[in-house]
Predict the structure.
Amino acid sequence: MNNLADKLFSNISKLVAISVLLLVAWIFTTLVQNSMESIKALGFDFILGNKWAPNIEKFGALPAIYGSVISTFIAMMLAVPVAIGVAIFLSELAPAKLKTPVGVSIELLAAIPSVVYGMWGLFYFVPIVRDIFGGVGISMLTAGMVLSIMILPFMAAVTRDAMNTTPDILKESAYALGGTKWDVIKDIVIPYAKAGIIGSFILALGRAIGETMAVTFVMGNVHKISFDLTKAATSIPVTLANEFNEADSGIYYSSLFELSLLLLVVSFTIISIAKFYFLRRKRIA
Amino acid sequence: MATIIEITENKALEVKNFEFSYAGTDAPSIRTLNMPIAKNSITALIGPSGCGKTTLLRSFNRMHDLYPGNRYSGEILFHDRNILSPKEDLIHLRIQIGMIFQKPTAFPMSIFDNVAYGMRLQGVKNKTELADRVEKALKDAAIFKEVKDRLKHDANGLSGGQQQRLCIARAIAVEPEVLLFDEPTSALDPISTAGIEELIVELKDRVSIVIVTHNMQQAARVSDYTGFMYMGELIELGITEELFVTPRERLTEEYITGKFG
Amino acid sequence: MTHTQKRVFINNAVMVLSTLSALVGMGFLLWILSVLVINGVEALNLNIFLNEGAPSGNPDGGLKHALIGQLYLVGAATFIGVPLGILAGTYLSEYGQKSKLSETIRDISDIMMSAPSIVIGAFVYAIVVHPMGHFSGWAGSIALTIIMLPIILRTTDDMLQLVPSTLREAAFALGAPKYKVITQVVYRGAKAGILTGVLLGVARVAGETAPLLFTSFNDNFLNTDMIKPMASLTVTMYNYATSPYEDWQRLGWAAAFILSMFILILNIIGRLFLLKKKGR
Ligand SMILES: Nc1ncnc2c1ncn2[C@@H]1O[C@H](COP(=O)(O)OP(=O)(O)OP(=O)(O)O)[C@@H](O)[C@H]1O
Ligand SMILES: [Mg+2]
């Protein structure tokens, strides 16, 4: 009796665990299958084409790819230095009384749904960008900035965690040689926590590139490559969010799946790099 | 009351009415402590765990100031100035008074860069001067032979004993006047320990040394003076041989004969 | 300036910069939070909880449909995702342990936790919405379940591993079969941690919008039939906020406020559980 129950329990739990792997495989194959029509019809023109016009069945994803890359790049450029600053403040500078409350509120802010950041961006940030940089305010630049604010809490929190792994005794040794706080941070803490810090930045990058709601509100979904950052633009997730429900023809539908597939492959790759290359040692028990 | 011998030679440091409490604690970890530290000699601090040895040692280079909320009063004289004064230049102080920790603390950089670190902080840029001084420090720390072919290698590849000697090389490279050791061999094997002890004895021609140790044989082997601390107070300070052979305080005697601690 | 003076100067400059960046970062976040609270509280009233959606211009429009829809969507996802996640996590920690299979499942789950959620929406569209021919509450719940699963799995796995093995051994020594050791001893030891994982998992999917856009879609009226399209707070928020009508936008802020508070509270409770556990 017990024996049977034991077998049942172990086998069922194993089955469920394995089903997670099957699920991921299923996701990939489904996306590939549904992309087939567009992959066959368009080939590399899909990735290299810069014209996206569903009404004449032209599906060039380059503007969306370009938008994903540039908006994420802007977000990272803005968020990385600020995140490092916040992390330094939290791990080395803040008085003990501030450390925990500020640290915890930053972690909590990372939990606020991204759609809220998008809404805030639309109503409060777009007008400011419009006034300062011109244009209509719905733009690549706005998207990058809102995205940077959205990933900031996550980045600051993980950077701080990485910096906090530096043993006190190591920092004290550098102070004992007459180092200033900054000397200790740049010569000891950052080199020591380097893998963790870079890994978390790349992880944040992987998340940012797939982020939909924070940018959908403020990007405009315009399929046009422009070097003017104040112009409306689009990205892969923005295109998906705006057009999935409209796709009528088979190839339109299929090309959106190809976009999804592309996004999944790219973020899987980025996240894997972060995880396997930089964050490997972090696994504890 | 405490029995503290007069020190006739020059003093490296002199502690006067020193009191110390950690942040968030009411009871002081050190209470009205007076203690001279002789120049160019080795002073050992012994006493049961938690008696305040580390706390006192870290007061000499103001390590406690790294953490907010610690309170202290009294004086610690160094070249006739009170280094506890808020005006004290801590960077300068820490260059003059170096420290070696309980565990080896090789920085995440090459062996050469580890030893050069303190000098670079002081602005030494000249390549040959750096190389010369690094070599000298490594020789003085009796580790040059072992590492001379891999100066560019990561310091974390060295053994524990080698790393500890590297840390000593790093500390003496900036030519401090005082070196503080906090149980420098407690993480090492007996052979490495013997090497470090030998090294410490050799160093005293150039620096004054304060060493915290749990190992009474070690104190007896290396030190000239020994201070016995108990519950935040200095119970007895004497010439090492005398303190171990004819302790004047009952507590000291009980401790060194293993009655407690 | 001596070298040391220069170092001290640079140090001070960097410290000022880092404090400033902390202020800027916190400033933006406080700004967002205060916008959320001010707009949200201003838009709150009883009607919001009592009435369904209404055409713009109708002052009686509420969010009841979205609140209840959200409850269904997240509730169903929790109902499916939590037991599956706990079971899978149990396998990893108690049976698979450090085996190759377990490590692979852990790695893949970790990656899935950061994977773009809109892609999950596309997947569910392909396997549920497309064959059914229409959007449905179930489709939305399935998408949320897929997002929740790796979170629950990994926290369960981690939390079970924290249970000291002496506890297991003691139970085995009494002759208990493994499944009883797990369900009666190990689970009990990891209760607070698993609960935290569940709370965080629920909080995480409750804020998801992208995977619902083309699965559960939306409905401006109350619907409790999961076969049909279903409203959610997040999609309603998106639709209302991007609409040109001010009253709808106000409702959007109310939805944002309610949802954010819900998520924050879940996060805080989750943390308290963990703290309490650590405190012991
Ligand atoms: N950071 C701290 N905060 C609060 N109290 C502390 C702190 N560090 C040490 N103490 C307390 O101060 C007292 C003295 O500690 P100290 O570390 O100086 O002892 P010690 O003699 O070096 O002991 P050990 O031989 O174990 O190293 C102890 O009661 C200890 O609990
Ligand atoms: Mg100590």
